[in-house]
Design brief:
It contains seven helices and eleven strands. It has about 240 residues and is α/β, with parallel strands linked by helices. The strands form two sheets. The chain has a nine-stranded mixed beta sheet with strand order 2-1-3-4-11-10-9-6-7, sandwiched between helices. It has a two-stranded antiparallel sheet with strand order 5-8. The protein starts with a strand and ends in a 14-residue tail after the last helix.
């Protein structure tokens, strides 16, 4: 049986316990056991971490010890998947640039605050994760992100909706969800998730999250079948 670590904490306003419980349920109904942790002790031992198939981040802002973020980055590089939503992955550990490098982006603003109504536009044909999904409406915070240009964009939203200083620029299509690789590990991010109920109010957001987690969790098995290891991406240079 595949197994996942979900780590929850940080700012309570993003309802980490509710989203962790929801994500654990999604995984368990698909045959993946989920262990929920309230701290970072689950990242103490790299070798143990490598026995998991997926890490799910539900930790907003805060800080992380360098040894823990290094172990996560190394585990993902070797094939452990990682996934998360807004309140937990790309609004986390703002001072850890390696975390941002791995996850593919960082939240910077939400013009208009909560309650902004906008459309999420699915990038059809971009990935099996979004196959058959249609564009959908969301009423939540509208997220402006700084994004890694290497990501595979799965869904976007148009800015500006609310007038603010950024509106003096041309309209832009901001990524809402993406996938990428880190070594041979799969990374999935869905920027929706300011509150847990967004996944009830916009059911396609829940489908997107579930599919993304499952895709990330399948990476180790795919790598094993295809003989893929992280060694092909390394040389004598050291990042740490």
């Amino acid at each position: 049986m595949k197994k996942a670590i979900i780590f929850q904490g940080g700012w309570d306003g993003h309802e980490p316990k509710l989203t962790s419980k929801r994500f654990a349920g999604m995984l368990e109904k698909n045959g993946i056991s989920a262990e929920i942790y309230d701290d970072h002790s689950c990242f103490d031992d790299l070798e143990k971490l490598l026995t998991y198939d997926l890490i799910v981040a539900c930790w907003t802002m805060g800080s992380i010890e360098r040894k823990h973020s290094k172990n996560i980055c190394e585990a993902v590089a070797r094939g452990v998947g990682i996934a998360g939503c807004h309140g937990g992955m790309c609004d986390a550990f703002r001072n850890d640039t390696e975390w941002q490098f791995m996850t593919g982006g960082q939240w910077v603003s939400h013009p208009g605050g909560d309650g902004v109504e906008y459309t999420v536009n699915i990038c059809h044909g971009s990935s099996p994760i979004v196959e058959g999904l249609e564009d959908f409406k969301v009423k939540s915070e509208h997220y402006y992100l700084h994004v890694d240009p290497a990501v595979e964009v799965l869904a976007t939203t148009r800015f500006p909706v609310v007038k603010y200083y950024h509106a003096s620029n041309k309209p832009v299509d901001m990524p809402v969800a993406w996938s990428k690789l880190w070594g041979v590990g799969r990374v999935f991010y869905n920027s929706l998730g300011h509150h847990d109920d967004v996944f009830d109010l916009s059911p396609n957001a829940a489908v997107l999250m579930e599919r993304g987690m499952l895709w990330a969790a399948d990476g180790k098995e795919y790598n094993k079948k295809n003989g893929l290891t992280v060694d092909r991406y390394l040389n004598d240079a050291k990042m740490y």
